[in-house]
């Protein structure tokens, strides 16, 4: 709404300049007559009523403007106006904003305000699908974790890495679902004002949730890398060995490395946010050159994981070819013996 009022005020100033130029042209450049002291006006000059700009109107006419709100084009029947009459003495009556007041009280779905945004089916579909899939993922991963823990005969280093990976994804999707709900319900905004105000007293909670969303996202990708690296090592480095690396190294790499990366990003982003007036809860956080601290880390981990996968595929293909060749030779020798 503030943007609408600003544009209206600027528009009125431009109208007054044009009308003043017309008066000077009509009465002469040396005339002292202005739009504010014209003794015999033939119209009501442009006027700003602190909300809307009223263009010059003929005496006795009634002007009409759309209420100074951002209306939702997707909601039908949202057309509400303000009326103002130009009196015969060249002065304006007070504007009648009764319809605009009715919009706020009875038809809030028509306007953007009080934390209400215009209906967007695509946005709502994305939010609902994301929330639903997050809940389903958490449920299935928790089931897998329970099964992994019940059967003690299955416990091994590979399964331990599986459980850490599943835990990272459980926490990632759980926190993401919480963040989605908090955002969609405007939990960190004061919606009693037309222009929503951030709740600065709980900004720390908002930042905590965002931090956890980012941390578990990075951690899940790093654990994917550890899973791929471990599987690749079983085909190459440790293929003929019974000893394995210390489990603590995997834990430190899977949970410690993301912690360091996210803490570095947090320090830089917090410093950048303090330089921006009105910045609340690091939003939007997916911006700035320092975003590469996160995206670069996850991108490198995914690329390395892809290389591990390709390496495993190459090794498997080579082994299959070797086995097929040996088997073909046996069959050929058997045929020749006959």
Automatic annotation (TrEMBL):
Residues 11-104, 126-338 form the G-protein coupled receptors family 2 profile domain. Its main location: membrane. It is found in: Cell membrane. It comes from the Eukaryota. GO terms for molecular function: G protein-coupled peptide receptor activity. It is a multi-pass membrane protein. This is G-protein coupled receptors family 2 profile 2 domain-containing protein. The chain crosses the membrane at residues 125-148, 169-188, 208-226, 247-269, 289-317. It holds the Pfam family HRM.
């Amino acid at each position: 709404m503030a943007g609408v009022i600003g544009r209206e005020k600027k528009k009125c100033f431009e109208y007054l300049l044009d009308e003043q130029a017309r008066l000077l042209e009509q009465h002469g450049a040396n005339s002292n007559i202005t739009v504010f002291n014209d003794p015999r006006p033939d119209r009501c000059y442009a006027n700003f009523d602190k909300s809307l700009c009223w263009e010059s109107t003929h005496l006795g006419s009634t002007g009409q403007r759309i209420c100074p709100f951002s209306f939702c084009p997707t909601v039908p029947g949202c057309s509400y106006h303000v009326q103002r009459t130009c009196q015969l003495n060249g002065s304006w009556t007070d504007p009648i904003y009764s319809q605009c007041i009715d919009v706020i009280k009875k038809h809030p779905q028509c306007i953007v305000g009080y934390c209400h945004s215009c209906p967007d089916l695509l946005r709502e579909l994305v939010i609902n699908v994301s929330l639903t899939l997050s809940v389903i993922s958490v449920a299935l991963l928790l089931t897998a974790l329970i099964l992994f823990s019940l059967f003690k005969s299955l416990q091994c280093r590979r399964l331990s890495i599986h459980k850490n990976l599943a835990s990272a994804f459980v926490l990632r999707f759980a926190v993401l679902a919480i963040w989605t709900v908090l955002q969609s319900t405007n939990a960190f905004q004061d919606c009693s004002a037309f222009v929503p105000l951030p709740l600065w007293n709980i900004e720390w909670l908002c930042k905590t949730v965002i931090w956890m969303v980012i941390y578990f996202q990075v951690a899940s990708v790093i654990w994917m890398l550890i899973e791929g690296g471990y599987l690749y090592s079983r085909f190459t480095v440790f293929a003929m060995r019974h000893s394995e690396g210390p489990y603590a190294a995997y834990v430190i790499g899977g949970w410690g490395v993301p912690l360091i990366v996210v803490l570095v990003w947090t320090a830089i982003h917090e410093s950048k946010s303090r330089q921006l007036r009105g910045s609340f809860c690091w939003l939007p956080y997916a911006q700035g050159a320092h975003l590469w601290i996160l995206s670069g880390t996850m991108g490198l981990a995914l690329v390395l994981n892809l290389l591990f996968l390709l390496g495993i595929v190459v090794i498997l293909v080579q082994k299959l070819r070797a086995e097929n060749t040996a088997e073909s030779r046996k069959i050929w020798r058997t045929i020749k013996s006959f």
